[in-house]
TrEMBL record:
Residues 117-232 form the XdhC Rossmann domain. Pfam families: XdhC_C, XdhC_CoxI. Gene3D superfamilies: NAD(P)-binding Rossmann-like Domain. InterPro entries: MoCofactor_Util/Proc, XdhC_CoxI, XdhC_Rossmann_dom. This is XdhC family protein. PANTHER family: ALDEHYDE OXIDOREDUCTASE MOLYBDENUM COFACTOR ASSEMBLY PROTEIN, MOLYBDENUM COFACTOR INSERTION CHAPERONE PAOD. It comes from the Bacteria. Residues 11-75 form the XdhC- CoxI domain.
Amino acid sequence: MKMTERAQQLVRARTPFVHATVVRAQQPTSAHAGDEAILLQDGTIEGFVGGQCAQNSVRKAALGALQSNESVLLRVLPDGDLHFPEAPGAAVVVNPCLSGGALEIFLEPQIPPPLVQICGATPIAEALADLCELVGFAVRRSAAGEDALESPADTTAMVIASHGGPEAELIRIALDAGVGYIGLVASKIRGASILDELELTDAERARVRTPVGLPIGAKTSAEIAVSIVAEVIQAIRKGGLAIPAHPASVVLEALDPVCGMTVTVGPDTPHLTVDDVDYWFCGPGCRKSFAATKASS
């Protein structure tokens, strides 16, 4: 599978990853400019951006990029001498295990965008779905029936635009799932009546917007959709509305007993078990050296 196809697959599954691309390579090195890989939260590397020694540095930097959600230009060098021209904002890693050469790799994290669940099949729901996609939000559509009652655990915002159906039940489910923004398309009187039925706490009531949307005097379905999207953006950018994070895998680190480098333990990290003790290495060279030392002792 090509990297672009794999990336699209992960985006559809809302799985965080880092896209790594070799932008410069200095011989001798096994990687070349244009080589690319995808790095997952568990440390898995799919593709090629260098040999075992380089992979450990790339893996560690990629996991940091996922946490910060900021792109990184990683420069992996065999010693402290900067062989490449200076690059503002680059992160430099000195990896003494490299067999010469140097690499410069661009790491671009891909974090799932805010997910807005829209309940209903009304003109407002249709306009809202189109506008959410236009601003880069992910959209999940559901009708007003039982199919909308699934727990929205990964949802940033839920908007109920069904003009009927199990509106109160949907609000209750969204509240229990921890959704931070819940909007109900209804008049002020009808919305208040529905909320009164639920007997909400003050904290829960603060998470439900009805009438939903910023008060811009919206009349048409499209205008109402604009007011709702604007309010969601405001809640995220200024109100601290949290975007549920994909559960991160627990990533282990170990100390290479030969070179002393901190190694991020992944599925392809060189490994050796001696006397029931596990050791991990930055590359096959250190593993071979350690094994030889143990065999002779």
